[in-house]
Amino acid sequence: MARDAMRTGLGLLGAVLLAGCAGEASSSSDGTEPLGCAATAAEGLEVAATDGAGQSGYSLGYAPHAVTGCLLVYVHPDGSLRARDLARGGKEETVAAAAEAPRRPTAFGGVVAWEAVEAGRRVVRVRAEGATRTVTGAFDHAAEPRAAGDAVAFTGWLSADEAGDTDVFLYEPGQPSAVVVASGPGQQRFPDVSAAHVAFADFAEDVDGRFDEDATDAADVVVMERATGRTTRRARPGKQAFPLLGAEGRVVYLEWGPLHPEPKFSAYTLLVGGVSDAGEADVAVVDIETASPYVRPTARGAWIEWVQWRSGMPAALYRQPADLGAGATVVTGMEGNELHAPVAGEGMTLVAARAADGAMVIRAAER
Questions:
Q1: Which of the four pLDDT bands, split at 50, 70 and 90, describes residue 317?
Q2: Is the bond into 261 cis (omega within 30 degrees of 0)?
Q3: What contacts 174, CB < 8 A, 6 or more positions away?
Q4: Measured between alpha carbons, how far is 333 from 276 in angstroms, rounded to an integer?
Q5: DSSP per residue over 255-270, as a string?
Q6: What is the pLDDT of residues 13-56, one digit of tens each?
Q7: Percent composition of the chain: helix, strand, coil (DSSP 3-state, to 5)
């Protein structure tokens, strides 16, 4: 079938994913090949100001937007999930209607995923290979998806109880259902996935075995090799969570230390280590403060990035090589009174910034 005919059948989202997989309008993960679009193509676009789980902001730091190559996926202020082709005049289509309550989109390579609600239950929806489906598996409901080019990792609740046992599942497009890749006593949550690894936070050591934002929450970060199932637990005192696998050969995660009350979601330490290492040599890179909780860092390719937003001061986006070969620098033009939800793609990094009228709009910077 000719490529143009394939694009017609797949729609805009499928066509852009097809182009990205074929190397068109995309870049390599290290940024050595130019994108077919500029970061300015995303600048100023209004996004949802909340993810629907809280009164305001983005609960747990999950962003309302994602970008892979020149495909931007975002939650519109009207509640729908939309895909925009940044390389071809900003054409866009609706991926999920507002009635589905879509939120927390994630995208990489040829895969897009998001949370939605079906029959009153949270589910993970995946768009890949020209089709969209709700992921099924041995769980009651599901959330917190993260996409790699060939898979989606997410948290599955084993019962309807939000405080109940959870496991980490992996879904590979083309398979009939998701499979468990991390289980155990208590909750395993907040996964990330790459072509070679899955990482997650394990709350088995916590007093009540679950993440409930109380004064005693405790967890370790665990990294699993997808090919072998071998796991490495980065056992450290205190609370570690929200691992990131986007930086080449690295795992990036957050630590709140052993002091109480915890967790301090607006004051944490950023740690970086070799993804295949045991964890003893993981480096504390920077202490981060944010005036709003749950403004998590991001990582992709050669860089890690985070928002520093000390009380009474405007926020700024910082960038540092993932190999820690140089110090952090402020990303020029990415300063503001409020910055939320940094998300890195292969060629650009996006944040949600508070506009003068109170709306949340995308600010974008080249990587």
A1: very high
A2: yes
A3: 129
A4: 35
A5: E--S-SS---TTEEEE
A6: 766 665 554 444 344 444 445 668 999 999 999 999 998 776 66
A7: 10, 45, 45
317, 307 contact by CB (below 8 A) = yes
- What value does the CA radius of gyration of the chain take, rounded to a whole number of Å? 19
Q: Do residues 303 and 328 lie in contact, with contact meaning Cβ atoms separated by under 8 Å?
A: no
Instruction: Give the C-alpha separation, 180 to 169, whole Å.
Output: 4
